[in-house]
Amino acid sequence: MTNEQVEQICLDDILITEELSRRIPRTTDLKEENDALHTLIGQLVEQPQILLKKLVKIIAQLCQVESAGVSLLEVTPNGEDICRWFALAGMLEAYEQTATLYSFSCCGICLERQAPLLYSYPERYFTFLQELKPTIVEILVVPLLIANQPLGTIWIISHDEHRQFDREDLRLMTSFANFTATVLYSNNARQAAEESARREQAARAVSEAAQNAAEQANRLKDEFLAVLSHELRSPLNPILGWTKLLQTRKFDEAKTAYALATIERNAKLQSQLMEDLLDVSRILQRKLSLKISSVDLSAVVEVALDTVRLAAQAKSIQLKTVFEPNIGQVLGDPSRLQQVVWNLLSNAVKFTESGGEVKVRLERVGTQAQIQVSDTGKGINPEFLMCLITSAKLTIPQQEALAAWGLV
Fold first, then answer.
1. What global pTM score does this model have?
2. What distance in Å separates the CA atoms of residue 63 and residue 156, rounded to the nearest whole number?
3. Which residue has the higher pLDDT, 272 or 94?
4. Beta-bridge mates of residue 114
5. Exposure letters 98-127 (e unless 16+ CB within 10 A, then b)
6. Is residue 239 within 8 Å of 270, Cβ to Cβ?
7. Among 396, 339, 347, 384, which Cα is nearest to 220's?
8. Distance CA 158, CA 60 (A)
9. Is 97 helix (H, G, I), strand (E, B) or coil?
10. CATH of 3-195, one of 3.30.450.40, 3.20.20.70, 3.20.20.140, 3.40.50.450
């Protein structure tokens, strides 16, 4: 066929649907048709995923044709409508999964008109069909519709000029088209329901995660406020204590100078804590930085002891120190180290009974220096000790918030 001849062919030249009613129908075999429907229903229950494949094989057998198929309407990622040959049986089975343009195909035209169509030698108009072997003599295409919504088509093909389709073929194909459309619609509805359920479950999971995050944030806030309260009280206690003593007692010049120096030192520490508080957002955002310098640990311990000395005297608790000589300087953040020792000493004084003892030991362990605080308090069951503050059980922001106040 020349290009000039192809150009002269129009769609109406290949459509011969009216021939279906003119031809003498072949004999109806309702029993075989009924048995086929029962087989498909059983397939639907047992293996629905291969139902369409089974369907086209049954249709090819019932209609006594060389090829049969089901095309489903799809939309490509770029929004183009196509008809995909989803399931094929017979001589064209090798072309399964072929995609054709909705606007230029036997299936597309059928769905546009929403009516069965019979084509004769369709390759004369749909030139891409010329690549198929064997040649299509006739193709009867029936639309799959639910409430006038197109789902695809079901079709049979004759490759033999002596096998011409008639109204009995049309009746049989229409029956199977109605069955197939119902199955496809039900399957699509089920998939949509499952997808909706998945989305609802995902939304619920997101909501629960957000709620858990909010609860976690509240717990973190409470923990932080508890730690903050503890930290702010540490330097405040000696300030208030020495202030009250200076107001109610008479001290010599040396003792008065010592008291004022202690008040000033702890006031500066309080100011530093307030600056840290104002910068808490940076701490919780994992941006805390340490100011590393050479540190005399004995001086750090002495300052911390001065902070808790009044509280210890109020409970008649003895504060003892054991400093190993020649410890030397270590690298660290003086303020953070002071916070750590404060907390250890203040807790020791708090939980030691009146008349008890708190001892601070500073010694060298290998290439490191170790500060150990012990007391005569009741103590904690060793099995429970690791449950107090376990870094592995804290979130990163919690760890850094606690680190900022010297608790981890």
1. 0.51
2. 8
3. 94
4. none
5. bebebeebbbbbbbeeeebbbbbbbbbbbe
6. yes
7. 396
8. 10
9. coil
10. 3.30.450.40
Report which DSSP code applies to 23: S
Which of 116, 245, 99 lies closest to 173 in space, CA to CA?
116
Q: Where are the alpha helices (DSSP H) in 249-361?
A: 253-278, 280-284, 297-314, 334-350
Encode burial over 144-178: b for 16+ CB neighbours within 10 A, e otherwise.
bbeeeebbbbbbbbbbeeebbbbbbbbebbeebbe
pLDDT in tens, 200-234: 888 888 888 888 888 887 887 777 677 667 777 77
- How far is residue 69's CA from residue 192's CA, in Å, rounded to a whole number? 25
Alpha-carbon torsion (83, 87, 92, 98), positive or negative: positive
Question: Which secondary structure element, helix H or strand E, spans residue 88, and what is its range?
Answer: strand 81-90
Half-sphere exposure of 403 (CA within 13 A, CB side): 18
The token duo for 166 is 């008639």
The predicted-structure confidence for 56-80, as pLDDT tens digits, reads as follows 999 999 899 999 999 999 999 998 9
Structure tokens at 320: 């003892």
Least confident of 32-36, 114-118, 244-248, 280-284: 280-284
Q: What is the pLDDT of residue 34?
A: 80
CA angle 152, 123, 143 (to 5 degrees): 15
Partners of residue 358 on adjacent β-strands: 319, 375
Instruction: Examine the pLDDT at 276 and tell me if it is beyond 70.
Output: no
Measured distance CA(129)–CA(100) in Å, rounded: 10
Residue ranges per domain, the chain?
A: 3-195, 287-408
Q: Is the pLDDT of residue 121 over 60?
A: yes
Convert the pLDDT of each residue in 240-264 to its tens digit: 888 888 888 888 888 888 888 888 8
Superfamily classification of domain 287-408: Histidine kinase-like ATPase, C-terminal domain (3.30.565.10)
Nearest CA among 394, 268, 388 for reference residue 338: 268
Is the pLDDT score of 295 beyond 50? yes
Q: What's the half-sphere exposure (Cβ side, CA atoms, 13 Å) at 82?
A: 13
Give me the sheet containing 357-365, strands edge to edge. Answer: 318-323, 357-365, 368-375
- Whether 171 shows a pLDDT value over 50: the answer reads yes
| Per-residue pLDDT at 396 exceeds 60 | no
